[in-house]
Structures are given as C-alpha cells and as structure tokens.
Amino acid sequence: MPTDIVMPQMGESIFEGTITKWLKKPGDKVQRDEPLFEISTDKVDAEIPAPASGILQDIKVVEGNTVQVNTVVGTIAGDGEAAATPPVASKASTPAPAPPAKTPAAAPPPPVDLQATAEAAREEEDDHARSSPLVRKIAREHNVNLSQVSGSGMGGRITKQDIMAFLERPEAAAPAVSVRTSAPAASSPVSSSPRPVAPSTVAIPGDAVPMTQMRKIIAQRMIESRRTSAHVHCMFEVDITRIVQLRNKTKSAFEQRHGARLTFMPFFVRAVIIALQQFPIVNASIEGENIRYHRHVNVGIAVALDWGLIVPVLKNADELNFLGLQRGISDLGERARSKKLKPEEVEGSTFTVTNPGQFGAVFGLPIINQPNSAILGVGGITKAPLVVTDNDGNDSIAIRSVVHLTLGYDHRLIDGAVADQFMAFVKKTLENWSEEVG
C-alpha cells in the first residue's frame, strides 16, 4: 500500500509550509530518512526526509505552493506496487479517447525519431538537475536552451547569476530556440507557433520575481523591529592583538585536540556573556509595561545563507565554557546551512551577535532582533597603526589587530550611558583576554 508524504508539523506555532524544492522526481527510488523535499516555514527552512523506502509515485503539491500541515504532498509506493501503478503525469491528465470506429486507412503519421526523443528527455532531466525552478522559468521566458549555459554552482549547477550573465552577452540578444520536441512540429498546429519572445531590451533585473517565504518573513520582521524599538547605535574600536596572537598560536593544537576549528566568534560571544552578567538590563526585554529580566543568556548567532538570513540560538550560553561555545556556534552554523535546524532552535534568544565583518565590512548598524533589546555587530579584523602606551606611560606607534564593534540597542529600555558602559566592559575583556581556550 502506498505511503503518504505529508507536510510536517514543524513546531507548535507553525500551521503551514511552502514546498521550495523536490529533491526527487516521480519514478525515482528513495530510501527511508533520505532527504526528499525542502520546505520553508515562518521559523526555518528544512529538508524533510522520506517516511519510507520505495519509489516516489507522484507529487501532489508542486514547488512554490503553500499548504497546511498534515496535507498529503505526494506518495511513495513499494517496489512491487510501483511496477503495477501507472505513472502519474506532472500536469493534469486527460482521459484516453475511446477507440474510433473503423474507417478507411489513413495516411500513416510521420515517423518519430526515437533517438532524438530519448536524447531530448535526457537533456531535460539533466537541466532539471542542474538548475532551480527560478532559473528554468527565466530560461523559458527568454527561450534559452540551458545546455548552452555554463554553471558556476556546485557540480556545475546553473545559478540565477549564470543565466543573467548569459542573457547579457551580445550573442544572447537573439534568444536561442529550444530544439527539444517529442514529435515533429507539424503534428500539432499549436506547436508550430513559436513561443512569444521577450524583447532583447528587457533585462532580467527588470523582471518581477515572487519573494521566497523566507524573504517575506525577513522583510516583515525588519519593518516590525524598526517600528517597535527606538534604535540607537554606538561603536567601539577594540585592539584584539592579544586574541589574534593566542589564536594563531593555539588553533592547530585546538583542532587536533577537540576536532573543531578555532574561530574568533567564541571570543566575542564569551566577552558579551560576561558583560551581560554585569549589565542584565541589556539581556532583558520589554513585555507590555514590564521589563523581563532573563535568567539565562540565550545568544542568537546570525548566519548568512545563500537564500536569506537565519538566527539560530545557543541556549543557556552562560553555562558553557569556551570549548562549548565554539562547538555550539559551529554546530548551529553548519545545520543552518544544511537546513537541519529545528524550529525551537531559532526561538528564545535574549541577545544577538551578527558578523558583517566576514564579508569585509568595517562595521555595521544592525537592526535589533525582536524581542531582544540589543544586538552586537562584529566588523572585520584589520591591522592598523595605533598609539600604544607602555607601563611607564611612554607612547609609541605599533601595528595592531583592530576590530570595530557596534551595539544596536533599544533606547526605550537601555540608556546611552549604560550601553557605553556595557561596550567598555566588552572592550576591556577582549583587550585583556586571560581565559584559557581549552
């Protein structure tokens, strides 16, 4: 008996999900717990595993559609069942016509080139595997044969940037007409009419592309945060030469001993935790006309994805040592990128850290992650000449490793003096780092 594939319940407060990508096609073999399709909810993007082994019999909900939880989105048949089950068309099928009455023999239909048909089917399958629905949509609209486009993604996958670059080439001004047909064009009066060709002056940046579910949620929450909190920012320059030297000295031994890379992020998170314990108001949040002082520090770590931004949460981070912070941060980041996070792992943050410096930014002015009252932006680490004062009060100029840290805070709850004192504490902790890294 076929097994139903349903839209899962990804948390108590989630009632629907959008199918963003099917990882298998009807007729493909699947193994139980193998990733089968990807979904987007208002909490996370996730890969959903197959509920059983067998053959993907049909897909009932196509990519881009949003359905309620527990809706059947497809079926999996056992190997024996699949053989006896007629294939389900991806589009609505029409009933087979009744056999016609015997009439005088008509002229035989033109022969079909079976080899060309098979090759076209293989090319169609290859293009489907090497591109996203958006890329295929753009290709259809501009009559582009994807076999002519070089992919820069993993495994030669064609990205939106690849097809946009292809369309901007002078030789692409006259769209390539696809030669893939399953029968001669003369067999149907519809197929003899060419697809309307978009004018060559219409560029891809002018097209209207629907927002993804994640992008809609990001847009909504950013506007809500701006309307909710009275945003103010302060920036501090921090000399982290001591930390840079410590990391360079110990990172190889750290990785060999613990099997984890030693990054800079746990240094910043650890300094923030110590400062939050000294200034609990920065770890608090507003609830109506009350202030909620949180018992623990739950640090949200912003992770930039190819398709958006997500903030997984390191719960009870104040109870972790340095090694625990490094392992927790790495684990959350890896599972965010591979769509393995659970809904509860992106909830409950009390303070957020974001790292625009990884892309070269000197500093950022981040928007507060509600319902937090503050967010720390970590800029890029650079070398710069600084005035250094020794223990005897003598000044000299030296090349130091510098980072700019920005605190975005809600002025409804946190006064400027408190924010500056908090950042001064973070700065002092980092510049005078004395904690063992494990």
Radius of gyration using CA atoms only: 29 Å
Provide the helix percentage: 25-40%
N-to-C series of helices and strands: EEEEEEEEHHHHHEHHEEEEEEHEEEEH
Seen as an oligomer or otherwise, the chain set is: single chain
How does the major sheet shape up?
7 strands, mixed
Can you count the beta strands? 19
The poorly predicted ranges are 83-107, 173-203
Number of alpha- plus pi-helical segments: 9
Residue fraction in strands: 15-25%
Query: How much is the average pLDDT?
Result: 81
**What is the straight-line distance between the termini?**
54 Å
Output the structural class.
alpha+beta
Shape: globular
Topology:
Layout lengths: L2 E4 L9 E7 L6 E2 L4 E6 L4 E5 L4 E6 L6 E3 L3 E6 L1 H6 L29 H16 L3 H9 L18 H9 L44 H16 L2 E9 L1 H18 L6 H14 L6 E3 L2 E3 L6 E3 L1 E3 L2 E3 L2 E2 L7 H16 L13 E4 L19 E5 L3 E8 L5 E16 L5 H16 L7
Parallel strand pairs: 12-16, 16-17
Antiparallel strand pairs: 1-8, 2-4, 2-7, 3-6, 4-5, 6-8, 9-19, 10-11, 12-15, 13-14, 17-19, 18-19
Helix pairs in contact: 7-8, 7-9
Polypeptide structure, described:
It is a single chain. This protein is of the alpha+beta class. It contains nine helices and 19 strands. It has helices at residues 79-84, 114-129, 133-141, 160-168, 213-228, 241-258, 265-278, 322-337, 416-431; strands at residues 3-6, 16-22, 29-30, 35-40, 45-49, 54-59, 66-68, 72-77, 231-239, 285-287, 290-292, 299-301, 303-305, 308-310, 313-314, 351-354, 374-378, 382-389, 395-410. Residues 83-107 and 173-203 have low confidence and may be disordered.
